[in-house]
Structures are given as structure tokens and as C-alpha cells.
Amino acid sequence: MVVTSLEKMIGLQREPTSIRNICILAHVDHGKTTLADCLISSNGIISNRLAGKLRYLDSREDEQIRGITMKSSAISLHFEKGNQEYLINLIDSPGHVDFSSEVSTAVRLCDGCIIVLDAVEGVCPQTQAVLRQAWLENIRPVLVINKIDRLIVELKLTPQEAYSHLKNILEQVNAITGALFTSKVLEERAEKETETQGISDSVHGDQVYDWSAGLEDTDDSHLYFSPDQGNVVFASAIDGWGFGDKEKIDKIVTSLGLKVGARESRHADPKVHLNAICSQWLPISQAVLSMVCSKLPSPLDITAERVEKLMCVGARTFDSLPPETQELKKMFMKCSSEDTAPVIVFVSKMFAVDFKTLPCNKPRPLTQEVIAQRRELARRRHAEKLIASQGQELPEQALSGNESELTVKTGETKGDKQELTSQTESMTLKTVEQEADKESFIAFARVFSGVVRRGQKIFVLGPKYDPAESLNKLPSGCSAADDLPSIPHMACCTLENLYLLMGRGLEDLEEVPSGNVLGIGGLQEFVLKSATLSTSPACPPFTPLNFEATPIVRVAVEPKHPSEMPQLVRGMKLLNQADPCVQVLIQETGEHVLVTAGEVHLQRCLDDLKERFAKIQISVSEPIIPFRETITRPPKVDMVNEEIGKQQKVAVIHQAKEDQNKIPEGVQVDSDGLITMSTPNKYATLSVRAMPLPEEVTQLLEENSDLIRTMEQFNSSLNEDKKMHEINQKILDRIQEFKQKLEKNLQGRKWRNAVDQIWSFGPRKCGPNILLSKFEGYRKTVWQCLDKTTKEVSKYRDFDNSIVSGFQLATLSGPMCEEPLMGVCFIVEKWDMSKAEEQMSANRQDSEELDATEQTKNEDKVTSLPSSYPTESSSENKKLQDGSQGSPNSSEKSSKRKGETLLADCYGPFSGQLIATMKEACRYALQVKPQRLMAAMYTCEIMATAEVLGRVYAVLSKREGRVLQEEMKEGTDMFIIKAVLPVAESFGFADEIRKRTSGLASPQLVFSHWEIISGDPFWVPTTEEEYLHFGEKADSENQARKYMNAVRKRKGLYVEEKIVEHAEKQRTLSRNK
Amino acid sequence: MSIFTPTNQIRLTNVAVVRTRRAGKRFEIACYRNKVMGWRSGAEKDIDEVLQTNTVFVNVSKGQVAKKEDLVKAFGTDDQTEICKIILTKGELQVSDKERHTQLEQMFRDIATIVAEKCVNPETKRPYTVILIERAMKDIHYSVKPNKSTKQQALEVIRQLKETMQIERAHMRLRFILPAKEGKKLKEKLKPLIKVIESEDFDEQLEIVCLIDPGCFREIDELIRCETKGKGSLEVLSLKDVEEGDEKFE
């Protein structure tokens, strides 16, 4: 066959009736790419002999090595049926579940699809998935049952058996289609019901819904696959044959036995033989393509339903769109290529190509002129060289002035020239090198209406763009070329290059009429992953792609060499753009996290990152898992559900040391957990108690962290007497509401007046922990902004910051493994500063006798003060001065110095001591309470078929998951299981569940909440029963301790672990041991 | 001189000796290797796993047992096990191989953690992970010194790392309020110490919010206090200027 010329393709592009946009979908290894190969070979792009072995559309190296397709790629084919010519835009898609995002991007651009089935394997999980996807996108499928030869060669079926087997497969496929159909009908019915309920008060006479009518009313016969309808082809792509036409089916049905027999007898011959006969007799491309042309719709036949679905984002109905937008529907339906029609293009993904493969950089055959020019250049260079060599010789020979002058001149000019040329050459070289380094992104797109031209100005509409909003802002009839006010989620750009996608290659195009699939260059800056392009601002963004798989496999990546960080970041950004289904983020810990759809997808992403985008060595690790620390009420029962206190404690040796370790001397501990502690210089004493907050309060605090933050900002500006920027009423109301909610949740004797005593939140002043002040004579709370009272001056005020800072530090890193606290309330019950005050007044009297030498000494000490010192001490000084009003001016300074000495003794500055004391007191207060770890939890939704339900449960329980609910999806045999799973156990979860269920269940993980791990990390068996139950160490049971130790080890903290479990006893070893 | 008889020699291959001096006498006990540190830290609670025998020696390798009267004189008791416990907690010991190894490893981790806490990537203003810092420390062949504090060593490591990778101490955000009179003069002096000035407000007082290197804090503090004679004030807005929250690439 002849290679179809580009001109012919361009010509065909103009006629929407003869265009077919199709994609090939199937389960992995059912022969999509092989089928594509056969179709390509019919166009003469690859040889017939190589079809099926080459896998032309698998252009990546790893695709070829692994033998699976990883990205969807398109090619335009030419097909003649009778005297009608067709242009077929074929998209091959991957079948592996990890790459189902690529399927979504392909399906969106097509009008029809070929679903390939393995005749032996039948319907597989991905077949169901792609059928569902095709259904959701409203595109019409045809079926190709592939690998028919396996029935004969491998299964050795008799013709009758083969027939019933194939019939079986067909029924299975039809059953799935039927299920999809029924579920949709049921859904619609449910929707209608709710709708009718909603408008039941205002029912119009003509708006009576016939929702009692169920399935029987809706015609579904056109949905099913049957050879009678001509939408099924039986084929063997590897051998290149297939049949499906009606007349041939008749022939086959009547003479099936005979033919199969004949084929069997031939199989003893070399395969080439068979191939040659069959592919000529029943060429697969002919069968498939003619079916495609006759059965699948052209772009013109786009259904109204599909258009509406594409144009309505989320829950919006088509009717709610602005009228201008509704107008566009007609354009869609018409699919006209007139110049007046607005251009609408959908970009479904961006893919990276090597800069060198772009058509503009391809080596082209040289034209005559260029050749002549180059020859001329070469000749001149040669001549110059000659002259130069002569010039060198000449000065030696001839000493006479004239001649040498001449040569010098020529030499100079020549030198200049050479310099110039070398410069330009090196420059071009450089640019080429730089550009060769770059990856160029091409948008994979389809024109839905109008004609796209190179250099055209066009709007790029992001997914959140709202046409109604912008239509109000923009003058009617404006175009992208005009100067426009900036509108959210909309940008203008110029289409730089248009390409015809030809598998591995690209062909430059000048313009592309409606209904075609194309590549667009130069959108890199404007489009991240997908977008809608249009010349009309009324165009709504298309509905986001339905992804079957959401990214769930999380890993942290790091460069092997720390200095290569910038390359990694840049590479990850490129990867993010190139892959529709990858997420890339930097966490607060500084980790670069890559979230992918599965292990195979992850592997591909890493390969891409290493070889194309970042070009550095990277290492991959499990991401860091966050924990929280908290306390609980003391438990009533022990680990074997016996009441605590009644059992006999076993006198265990190793318990002896425990309690003395925790709390050092100098700290008093009450029986109910009140900690009393003094600063190192004994001037101030603090009493602190820790209490667990009710769960609802913690939740409330979490939700309102933003509000708390604004409150905090406002308070701090209030305290500093600064520009009282008015807080707006709305926020005040919200704060009031928040306060009331807190009051409602904090009830009971313990929490009396608690809300009014809240001093601060932590950590970072907005976290889920509370500091209460319950001592006398202090009334500063976070609710300042509400009552706007003037701040009172009390003796505590100056050090108030230190206490709060101490609290912030304590909540930021808890005693168990230095993770932040959550849901803890610290109560300062006493704050005694009497000694400090005494000292101050005593100092005041001395101050006048102070001499200058001491002053300088003090200054030296003072320099070692920490941050919070200056503001506080200066105000402290003011107070001192108030007291000693009568003192002469000269002594003022010295008294100031003296004041500071008090505050900065040998233990460092007083404010610093307070911070440290407060922090320590909080930590001890925590330690005397039963401490618990909190783990981050995912909610996990699993869709699974009934037969793999048991295995799903097994995997869940192995990973400490808990099933919340399980229900059957209406109209299908799928179960939906909702469960919670600790983040710490989620690594590899998705993969395990897929493996165990052979891909029939796919989980989706979303972070949901923090949950207390019930086990005490410090627990050891103490009673007889526990001993019996858990043994002496009980470390196998203690999940909390495992987590805690892992975190401590990671952070380089001390882990209570024996270096050697059992000491080696003395052996007398020989001399040369 | 005794004759050297190798056949009779029993080499103490697996004994860690803990010694102490009391009342002018030396006392030793025989312990298992790699166990004494565990006892001291509280990880090992079974004394039989630590002591080879609960006899107190004068010299373990020669097998000379301490005399009872000496023990009473030095410790006030002759209960061997009690004395062993005293020696275990107070005596000096030779650190065994595995103990030293874990100790160094722990210090190495600790240093890396401190560095990761204090530093950021100046480009992204985000911290590096501990693992990355550890690898970088191995790359520059940093060896841990067991007798220096980890914090000191961490500062040293930061200095060395700066040569090979992009790393910087996380900046401190400060606010000065300076009296108008000295303001201008002082600002000139402060300038070389300040990394970035974020805002500057000059009406009655000069108010500057800026980022500084934490190493310069003391200098700045001193400068402001001396120059303004206590009238100027300085406030720390944040100890570490880092990006918060997760960032998604888009």
C-alpha cells in the first residue's frame, strides 16, 4: 500500500462526515497495540510483516522493554471503503490499571472506541473499567474479540465449544453494559424522584414526570454487542486476520466447522504461511476499519446529551448556563469548519517530546539554493585558507614593504572574518545544545468546533472558569486579540504550532478544522494538565476528566547529591505537567513527595524523572509519617479487661527503676497530677496541671484555626497600642459564635469558667491545645478583641509572654517523640512571683550606692540576654523608676542597670528562665498523666466485587484498618466498603489490595482525621493475668510503642533499647580467634 | 620471674571491667560487654544480665577478690550485690565496641536533626530532611567527636556543608523600634548585619522589620542597647523564617 500523503490527510480533515476519532481500549495484554499495528500497516507506515511485533505506538524505551503501553498516543490513518474515503484518528491507550488516567484523556477526545477482548481470558477487571469509562463519556463502543487462534491452538476447542465460548464472552460483555445501563436508569429515576419532591409544591401541569416507568420503557437494544448488528469483529491481530462483515458472518456461521478444521491442519506449517493466507483472505484492518467507519459516529453525530454533559461542570445543569453559552451547543452539534464558527478545543493532556523530534528541528532535504550557497561558502573558505598559507610564507621571503603590507591586510581581514564565523558558530551550537536539553510540551487536543490556525489568539480557560461571570465583565463580541481586563482562571495565548500526530512523529500543519485530533505546541506556559481553549469567552470549561484511579502511592524523593536539589524541583514540575495523574508536593518537613496511581506508574515516573526531566540520580524512601501526642483519662481496666487495682501486682525487678526516672528532684508532684516547679534562681514558682480536652473541643479548635490566628493578630496589635486596625463585624460575630460553641462543649464542674480563662492556644498560637490561667489577680484572655477592655497593668503582665512562649514550646514537641501535642489543656493554677518582687524592692534601695565599675560589669552580663529580654526589661525598669520617683536623675541609669542584674543572674535572664521552667513544667504535667499517641488516619473507600470481598477484609485487618460500613451499589454487583486505616500502615496498601484481589478492588485513600491509638506506649505487663496473656516483654502487642520508637530513632533521640539482648558469656578463646 | 605458660592463660575476651577508687583502694567488678551502658540508661533492668558475677575484685584479670574489711571500710557494707550496683553506677568503664558505635550513631543522627531544624534551602525557604543532611554529612566525611556537644558540632557541620550545597541558617525575623535621633546613624551600623529589610517605617520612631542570620543576633542586640542607651527596643517576631504548610506544584 502507498503511504498517504500529508495533503490528502489535510484534505480529508475538512470533511467532518469522513472523520472517525476512535480509541482502542482493553485490559492489559489483550492486544491493543498489536491491533493498532495491523491498522497502521494497512496504511503502509510499517511493513505488513512487522505488524504485531514492532508495536509502533509504544515509542518509549521502557514500553518496549516491559511490553506494556504506558501512555496514549495518536496516529491519523487513511481508509477507503467503497468509493468513500475516511480519515481515522486512532488513539492507542494503555491497559494497565496504573495508567487508567491515560485512558481517560484518550476517551475524552474520541467519538467511538474499539474494545478489545481476549477470546480466552474473556472479560477482565480493566475491561469493566474501560466499558464504564466509555459509558461515562457517552461514546459508542464496538467490540473486537482478539486472539481467536488461541481457542484453537491453546485450548484445543472443537468448533462447537469455540462457538459457545465466544457466545459466553459476548454475553458477559453485554451483561456489564446492561448493568451500566440499569444503574444509570435507576440513578436518573432517583434524581427525578428527589427533583419531583423538591418541586412538589409548585408542580406545573405539564411537568409530570413519568418516574414510575423503570427499565422496561427505555430502549437499550442499541447498546448491546452482537455480530448481527455488525459491531463485533473476531480477529487474531498477531496473525493479521479478522472478520466481522455480515456477509462473511453468514458464510462462517454456516461453514464454521470446516474452516476451523482447515486452519488447524495448516497450523503445522510455519506461521508466516498462515499469516500470508489469512491476512489476505480476511485482512484485519479491512474488517476493523470498515466496522469503525460504518458503526461508529462521525464528529457530526455527537449526541446532544454528550455535549450537555461536557459543558456542565459538577452539579450545574445545562439550563443554568448563560444563554450565550447555550448557543454554543448548536455549534458543537454542527461541528462546522466555517471561519465564523467559534473555535472550541479541548486539551486533555500535555506530553513531553524531545526537542529534537519536533518537525521544525528535523533535518530536511536541502534545496538547490541552500546547497549552492553552502558550496560557495566552502569555496571561499578554501580560498582564504590558501591565501593565509601564502601569507605566512610571504613575509619570510619578501622583505619589501608593499607586499608585506598587503598580506598583513588580508591576514587581518581574514582573521576578523574567522573570528566572526567562529563566534556565530559557537553561538548557534550553544543554543542548539540548550534547546536540545529542554523538553518540549505538546498539548494533546481535539477541535470540537471552528478552525484552529497557527498563530491564532485564543482564550485558555481553566477548570474553575465561569462563563457567566466573565460575560458580565467583557464587552460582547470581543476576541482574544483585544486588550482585556484580567479575569480569574482565564488567559490569552497564541497557538504557535499545530501538529498532526503520527505516532512517533509529528507533522506540521497550518490549520486544523473541526472534529480532528491534533497536537498544539507552545502552550507550556498556559496549560498545566488539561484545559479548554476557545475564541469565545462564553465557552464553559469542559467537565474534568473522570479518572478511574486516583493517585495513592506516596513516596518521598531526594537527590543522591544534596547539591542537585534545584534540578530535582524543576524536574518534578515538568513531570507534573507531563503526567495527568501524578501529584507532586513539598511537605512542611521539606520532603518532596510524589503521589502516583500505582507501583508501575511510580516506576515510570521515577524513570522519567531520572532520564528526562531532572537527569540526576534520585533516591526514594517512605515518606515521613506525622504523629500527635495527647493524654487521656486514666483507664479503668487493664489490658486483659480486669479492673485496675484489684489484681495482685507481680513484683517485677524491672519496674523498680521506672518511676524515679521520669521526674527529677526539685519538682513536686501532687497525687492528682499538679506539678509545682521553681525557676533555677528560685524567684518564681509555677503550678501546672494537664487535662485532656473533650474530643469535640479539639475538633472545633482544628476547624477554627484560621479564626484563632486572626484573633491572635488582633490581640497582639491591641497589646502594642498600635494602629488599631478595625476588625470587621463579621469576624467578630464568628469569634462570638466560636466562643459560644466552646462554652457549650466545655461543661461540667471541671470546666467551670474555663472558656473565659483561656490564655492562649498552641502550638504556633492557633493549634488544638489550650492554656488556662486559674490563678488570682490575672485576667488576660484571648477574648480581648470581643470586649475591648483596656489592658490592666498587673505585676504579671511583663512576664506573661514568657509563660505563653513556654507553653508554645511545650505544645510544639511533646515528651514522647517530639511531635506536636493535640487536645491537651494546661492549667496554670499558681504563679508565685513574691520573691522576685522582694528582690526588686531590695535592689531599689541599693541602687543609689552603685558605682560605675560595677555598671560595666553588669553590661557584660546583660549582653548574653535572649530575644524577649529588651522589651520586657525596659518596661520593668519603668516600673522600678515609678517606685523610686524621688531619686535624682543621675542615679536613674544606675538603678536601671541594677534592675537588670536582678533579672539576669548566673542562670541567665529571668524571662528565659521562666520560659524554660514553664516548658519543663508542662512536660512533667503531661508525663504524670497517661500519655497516648495519635495516628493520622485515612478514610478508605474500596469498590470490590462480591467474590473478592473476603480478601479485602483480610488485607484491611492485617493493616489495622477498621471497616465502617459496607453497602451494595444499586444495580451492580459491586460493593462499596468504607474503612479507616492508619497512615503509618498505608505504604504499599493499594498495591497489596490490588494483588490480593487480582485487581478487582481498588482503594481510594483520603486523609480524614487524627485518632488516638488506644495502647499505652509505656505499658508493660504488671498483673498476673497480663503476664500470662502477654508474656514478660509484650512488645509484640504494643503498636504505640513501635510507632514511638520508630519516630525517636529517626530523630536520633534516645530509644530505650538494649544494644545486645543477651550478653555473651565468657568463653576462653584460642589465641588466634 | 614466673615462666610464661600460655596453656594456663585464660584471656578475658568478653569481660568489661568497671573500676572505682574508694578509701585509697581500687575496686573492680566483671561485667558483660555492651551491657553496662544499657544498665546506666535504664534499658537493662536485670542485673544478672549485666554482671558476670557479683563478687567485687581488686583486680579482675588476676582474679583477686576484694577483702571484706576493705569493702566495709570503703562502702560501709559488705553486701556484694549492693556494692556492685554502686560501682556500676559510679565507676569508670571502658566503653565497648557496640556501645561506642551506637553512641556515635546516635550523635550523628542528633547532629543531623539539629542541622535540619536550624537550616533551610535558601531557594525554597523550606527545610531539608534529616536523611538528606545525613547523606551530605557522609559526603563531606564528617566525623563525630564524642566529647563535644552535638549542638556545637551541628554549627560546625553547617559551616562545612555550605561549601558543597545550598544551605543556610533559617533567618530570624526581628523588629527594632529605634528613637528617631539615633535611628539614622544606627541603621548604617546595623546594615551589614541585616540580610533583608522587610519593612521600614519612619515617623516618630524608626521601625524596621527585617531578617537576620541567627548568628548575628547577639551583636545586633548589643549594638542597639549600647547605642540607644536602652531606649531602642528589639523584638523577635519569629525564630525561624520557614514556609509553612504543604505546597502543591501547579
From TrEMBL, chain B:
<dbReference type="InterPro" id="IPR019783">
    <property type="entry name" value="SDO1/SBDS_N"/>
</dbReference>
<dbReference type="GO" id="GO:0005654">
    <property type="term" value="C:nucleoplasm"/>
</dbReference>
<dbReference type="GO" id="GO:0002244">
    <property type="term" value="P:hematopoietic progenitor cell differentiation"/>
</dbReference>
<keyword id="KW-0963">Cytoplasm</keyword>
<comment type="similarity">
    <text>Belongs to the SDO1/SBDS family.</text>
</comment>
<dbReference type="InterPro" id="IPR046928">
    <property type="entry name" value="SDO1/SBDS_C"/>
</dbReference>
<dbReference type="GO" id="GO:0048539">
    <property type="term" value="P:bone marrow development"/>
</dbReference>
<dbReference type="Pfam" id="PF20268">
    <property type="entry name" value="SBDS_C"/>
</dbReference>
<comment type="function">
    <text>Required for the assembly of mature ribosomes and ribosome biogenesis. Together with EFL1, triggers the GTP-dependent release of EIF6 from 60S pre-ribosomes in the cytoplasm, thereby activating ribosomes for translation competence by allowing 80S ribosome assembly and facilitating EIF6 recycling to the nucleus, where it is required for 60S rRNA processing and nuclear export. Required for normal levels of protein synthesis. May play a role in cellular stress resistance. May play a role in cellular response to DNA damage. May play a role in cell proliferation.</text>
</comment>
<dbReference type="GO" id="GO:0042256">
    <property type="term" value="P:cytosolic ribosome assembly"/>
</dbReference>
<comment type="subunit">
    <text>Associates with the 60S ribosomal subunit.</text>
</comment>
<dbReference type="Pfam" id="PF01172">
    <property type="entry name" value="SBDS_N"/>
</dbReference>
<protein>
    <recommendedName>
        <fullName>Ribosome maturation protein SBDS</fullName>
    </recommendedName>
</protein>
<keyword id="KW-0206">Cytoskeleton</keyword>
<dbReference type="Pfam" id="PF09377">
    <property type="entry name" value="SBDS_domain_II"/>
</dbReference>
<feature type="domain" description="Ribosome maturation protein SDO1/SBDS C-terminal">
    <location>
        <begin position="172"/>
        <end position="239"/>
    </location>
</feature>
<keyword id="KW-0539">Nucleus</keyword>
<dbReference type="GO" id="GO:0006364">
    <property type="term" value="P:rRNA processing"/>
</dbReference>
<dbReference type="InterPro" id="IPR037188">
    <property type="entry name" value="Sdo1/SBDS_central_sf"/>
</dbReference>
<dbReference type="InterPro" id="IPR018978">
    <property type="entry name" value="SDO1/SBDS_central"/>
</dbReference>
<dbReference type="GO" id="GO:0007052">
    <property type="term" value="P:mitotic spindle organization"/>
</dbReference>
<dbReference type="GO" id="GO:0005730">
    <property type="term" value="C:nucleolus"/>
</dbReference>
<dbReference type="GO" id="GO:0005829">
    <property type="term" value="C:cytosol"/>
</dbReference>
<dbReference type="GO" id="GO:0000922">
    <property type="term" value="C:spindle pole"/>
</dbReference>
<dbReference type="InterPro" id="IPR018023">
    <property type="entry name" value="Ribosome_mat_SBDS_CS"/>
</dbReference>
<dbReference type="GO" id="GO:0008017">
    <property type="term" value="F:microtubule binding"/>
</dbReference>
<keyword id="KW-0690">Ribosome biogenesis</keyword>
<dbReference type="GO" id="GO:0030595">
    <property type="term" value="P:leukocyte chemotaxis"/>
</dbReference>
<feature type="domain" description="Ribosome maturation protein SDO1/SBDS N-terminal">
    <location>
        <begin position="14"/>
        <end position="100"/>
    </location>
</feature>
<dbReference type="InterPro" id="IPR002140">
    <property type="entry name" value="Sdo1/SBDS"/>
</dbReference>
<feature type="domain" description="Ribosome maturation protein SDO1/SBDS central">
    <location>
        <begin position="109"/>
        <end position="170"/>
    </location>
</feature>
<dbReference type="GO" id="GO:0043022">
    <property type="term" value="F:ribosome binding"/>
</dbReference>
<dbReference type="InterPro" id="IPR039100">
    <property type="entry name" value="Sdo1/SBDS-like"/>
</dbReference>
<dbReference type="GO" id="GO:0030282">
    <property type="term" value="P:bone mineralization"/>
</dbReference>
<dbReference type="GO" id="GO:0019843">
    <property type="term" value="F:rRNA binding"/>
</dbReference>
<dbReference type="InterPro" id="IPR036786">
    <property type="entry name" value="Ribosome_mat_SBDS_N_sf"/>
</dbReference>
